[in-house]
Design goal:
508 residues, single chain, 43% helix, seven-stranded antiparallel beta sheet
Length: 508
């Protein structure tokens, strides 16, 4: 035990010296991350830049004629109707590619030329353009390797007081990044150091993942060694019956010991959960029994768009402010998702007249049963399924931000399946939105979301209390890190002094 204890002292001292600055950076940037994220363009912002579909004076084609224009035997995976700059078009995604089809087969979409780029830019910011750079490699604000396929990317600088910048794809003019000076400032203090979002590293996703995992993993070893040291010092202090709570007289040792006692466990869970934000649950902990993606199965067997009983043109007439229409489905049940920039409407497509979607208990049950009927590992005997209509949020169904018609997505059908994965499905009957929870996702929740973001029962429903707890814990973690930095500096100074003394002795 003495050998192990001495090893723990050495590990904590060496790794602490190497990682103390990184830990302090993680804790301080976490405060910023509570209020400011990395700048990005979300789907709602993009949608708001589109025009209302009812503004089109063109005659809308039958959807069967549109689908017939696709290459032979390509199956539609996703279909939406959009309108930009006076031109209405269908965006079709198939298993082999993506297509933008204008209403008239003889028409062509607007080219992504200088004029088009300037028109897109004006939608995002009314200020004049100072200049436009052509970006051929990832930079700090688009550091993701998957964006290389959009290269070259146009970086647009606007002449406004906010220092606004916009990145547009040269392929289709899609906005990839939009930020101002204030957002970039907070990103440097928050998301960039916290997520290690440095361009040279983040553009290689595999290398970035490994770097975060290794840094966090070494941090966990350092903290575990520190906890061992703390227990050893506590044990010796109590055995020798010191009157002081801490045996240390030097202030940095004293405060590092005290903060470690109160916040050492949190520092460990914070570091471990940070690692689990990018790491997968190992198969030796849990290997999913289902061989198929259950949510994909529930969206399989979609009716062809031309087989929807409700014509999409009736949707445009019924919702004149609609900006986008998407063909959706729950198994064989078709419906439309209609977006107007503020909210979404889910319209049943099994009737010739528009009416709100409402999935029945029976068809939800049949949908769940189809998952296990199609899975190659499914047992011959039916798997027991229990369904209940849930009228409140719980640990694994807690997202109160997604509102439908001004209220949370409740009630929701909670379906418990007695399979090897202990699966639970939450299916909202008025939107068709599905949330699947199994053993792997529970491990992920408790190893990352609960520990890192304090998404714990009792705190989920009280944002003020959760942030207060986070502030207290992060202040404690920062104190541990500050004292660790001071001790590391003193340690390096002692090493340097000893080295100089040794060199002088040798010279004599």
């Amino acid at each position: 035990m003495n050998v192990i204890t001495q090893l723990m002292y050495s590990i904590h001292r060496i790794l602490g010296t190497l990682l103390c600055i990184l830990f302090l950076m993680w804790f301080l940037s976490a405060f910023v991350m509570m209020y400011h994220r990395f700048p990005h363009v979300n789907a709602k912002e993009k949608l708001q830049k589109q025009e209302v579909l009812s503004a089109s004076g063109d005659s809308l084609p039958d959807i069967a004629a549109v689908i017939a224009r696709l290459p032979h035997k390509e199956q539609v995976r996703k279909l939406t109707l959009n309108r930009k700059f006076g031109q209405t078009f269908f965006h079709v995604r198939t298993g082999k590619g993506e297509y933008n089809l204008p209403l008239n087969p003889s028409d062509s979409l607007l080219p992504t030329d200088s004029k088009y780029i300037h028109r897109i830019a004006a939608l995002w910011c009314p200020a004049p353009i100072v200049h436009i750079d052509t970006v051929n490699s990832p930079d700090q604000w688009i550091p993701f390797g998957e964006l290389k396929k959009e290269m070259p990317i146009y970086k647009i600088y606007f002449a406004d007081d906010a220092g606004t910048q916009l990145y547009l794809s040269s392929r289709n003019g899609e906005a990839l990044q939009f930020s101002n000076r204030n957002e970039r400032f907070w990103a440097w203090l928050g998301a960039i150091p916290h997520w290690v979002y440095f361009t040279w590293l983040r553009q290689d996703t595999a290398l970035w993942n490994k770097t975060v995992i290794w840094l966090s993993g070494m941090g966990c070893v350092m903290v575990i060694a520190g906890i061992w040291v703390t227990i050893d010092v506590w044990r010796k202090t109590r055995r020798n019956r010191y009157h002081r709570f801490s045996p240390y007289r030097k202030k940095w040792y004293h405060w590092h010991y005290l903060t470690g006692i109160f916040f050492g466990i949190f520092v460990l869970t914070f570091t471990f959960s940070g690692m689990m934000s990018v790491a997968d649950i190992p198969e030796w902990i849990h290997k999913p029994a289902l061989k198929t993606n259950p949510i994909r199965t529930l969206h399989a067997h979609a009716p062809r768009p031309e087989h929807y009983t409700l014509d999409y043109r009736r949707i445009i007439a019924a919702y004149p402010q609609a900006l986008q229409i998407e063909w959706s489905n729950f198994r064989e049940h078709p419906y439309y998702t209609v977006k107007d920039g503020k909210t979404e409407f889910y319209i049943d497509a099994t009737d010739s007249l528009p009416r709100p979607l409402h999935l029945s208990e029976d068809e939800i049950r049949r949908g769940i049963e189809s998952i296990y009927a199609s899975d190659s590992t499914g047992a011959n005997a039916p798997i027991p399924i229990r369904m209940s209509l849930l009228g409140h949020f719980e640990t694994y169904y807690r997202d109160m931000s997604n509102m439908y018609r001004g209220r949370p997505q409740l009630p929701v059908w909670k379906t418990v399946v007695e399979d090897a994965d202990r699966s639970i499905y939450y299916i909202h009957p008025e939107t068709g939105i599905i949330r699947h929870v199994d053993t792997s996702s529970r491990w992920k929740y408790w190893s990352y979301t609960a520990l890192h973001r304090m998404r714990l029962p009792g705190l989920n429903s009280n944002a003020a209390l959760r942030k207060t707890v986070l502030w207290i814990l992060l202040l404690g973690g920062s104190a541990v890190s500050v004292t660790g930095v001071a001790l590391s500096i003193n340690y390096l100074r002692r090493k340097c002094r000893r080295k100089r003394k040794s060199e002088r002795y040798i010279q004599r």
